[in-house]
Amino acid sequence: MKDQDTIRLTAAQALVRYLSAQAIEIDGAEVPLFAGCFAIFGHGNVAGMGEALYAERETFPTYRAHNEQGMTHAAVAFAKQHRRRRMMACTSSIGPGALNMVTAAGLAHANRLPVLLLPGDTFVSRAPDPVLQQVEHYGAPSVTVNDAFVPVSRYFDRITRPEQLLASLPNALATLLDPVDCGPATLALPQDVQAEAFDFPATFFAPCVHRVRQPGPDARELAAAIDVLRGAEKPLIIAGGGVLYAEGGPEALARFAETHGVPVAETQAGKGTLAADHAQNVGAIGVTGTQAANTLAETADVIVALGTRLQDFTTGSRALYMDHGPRLLGINVARFDAAKHGAQALISDATVALEALSQRLGDWQASTPWQQQAARERSDWQRVVARVTADDGAMRPADSQVLGAVNRAAGSTGTVVCAAGGLPGELHKLYQASGPGSYHVEYGFSCMGYEIAGGLGVKMAAPEREVYVTVGDGSYLMLNSELATSVMLGHKLIVVLLDNRGYGCIHRLQEATVGVEFNNLFEGCNTAPDGAPEIDFAAHARSLGCHAEWVEGIAGLEDALTRARAAERTTVIALKTDADKATAEGGTWWDVPVAEVSSREAVSQRRVNYDNNKQRQR
């Protein structure tokens, strides 16, 4: 190859330059595919990746974070808010820095969300082995801590020569953009290889515009799906995240549901696909579902699983609707998900499938009595929502009341962010989402610590929206450092911190399965004689640069939310809540095994109820 046709770059420089050249078409406009790179530098990446990122800092921004798991959560949330069309990279040092990203990689894998992970690695040459932070395996010298990324990556490669990037980088990007295989891609970067140079073809860095594929259905599968629907009188659609990720998916679903009179229930990932006030939207389904959606699911004759992976919270541990044997039609871009639970599979992009089905169904509709029942159930549930989210004057309100206040404050232009604990369940069944982009709850991995970091990623993706992070004291204590990042970068968040002095959600589950309080609430834990500390969360948040205050009751919260909206930087609002209160209405059984033998009668009684519910599972 001639000299003028090559560019001599280090592996790290080539990687950054390649990423900078990638664009994606969104709504007819070309925008950078990567919004930049989160980086925490250490001896495994500062000399190689650090030098390369510095050189491209004007065109490929680098953002400093405070925790590797947190920055990866933020990057994943950024991609989710962009419906998988834009993404970020994350680079860390070797050893603990790399391992800190593994949990967030698992989250991205479970939720099928794209993030490019670039952990530093030990020396390929092994000349200085063992280096600081290196884990040695006596019988496997090539094993490093980065092998932990293999089970939580959709694509993994360890780059041992610079020229391997020529094959590995395009493959990593193809995975990140693939509607079926989408998930984290990891390129482990040994620190000596990062700094090694190679004569790369100049064409490798040519600008490239990507478009996400929208595969259509097989004709025979489509015909079989038509037969299933034509035979249905009481169909129910379960809308999952795949509807949001399909270009035009929410609009296609609204048209289909309106044209054919089919009620639509929502998974956590699919919530917001239809606005809460849409006439066909009967709300959340499953363990944290509405009474409306679950009642319909229990009597539907056809369930259309649209863009959902049918997690146990969606199916009520396969006991909500499967016990009465409805036909299950799985519409999904991934064969793995479309065929789950013996479904009649229609493998296709959600938008393409809905349009093809509607065209061939013509004037077919769900039965009139079914549509009328759906409307009644929906109306009844809306009255429940109004009642349980209303302020009753309690100084320690229920989660539902707090979320009602957040919902009213967010309106149609805000986005609520949450992840683990009891809050996602209350949000799923009660929050009135205004449409796509208004509801951002991570519940595929249910990862404590995602909330604040995820809120940062959402704000970076949608700076025009007010971002409301709802977080319990347990999750806040696990991972709060990206509050400082949000202040440093100028990405304002409104954080509502519910302090129930413990892990309230698991406390309630423990009461339901074991009948005691043990090691969840502070009052049930081993402590020093003076007990657990009273944590001043507002003072802590102020130390990280935030505005912060304590409030009492819903009236105090609503006043504080007004002040927070007017503030120019991240604001934390803390209030005491009741750990024992949860919305009794809605929901269904969840398979959490109870001890088969116990010295305590309370456990034995609970085991009887568990065995009875197990009989419903398909």
The CATH architecture of the largest domain can be given as: 3-Layer(aba) Sandwich
Percentage of residues in strands? 15-25%
Question: Which stretches are poorly predicted, pLDDT < 50 over at least 5 residues?
Answer: none
| pLDDT averaged over residues | 96
- Rg over CA atoms, rounded to whole Å, is 25 Å
Structural class determined from secondary elements: alpha/beta
Could you tell me how far the N terminus lies from the C terminus, measured between alpha carbons in angstroms? Answer: 63 Å
Assign the CATH topology of the largest domain: Rossmann fold
Domain count:
3
Count up the helices: 24
Quaternary state of this entry equals: single chain
Number of strands: 23
Largest sheet: 6 strands, parallel
CATH superfamily descriptor of the largest domain: Thiamin diphosphate (ThDP)-binding fold, Pyr/PP domains
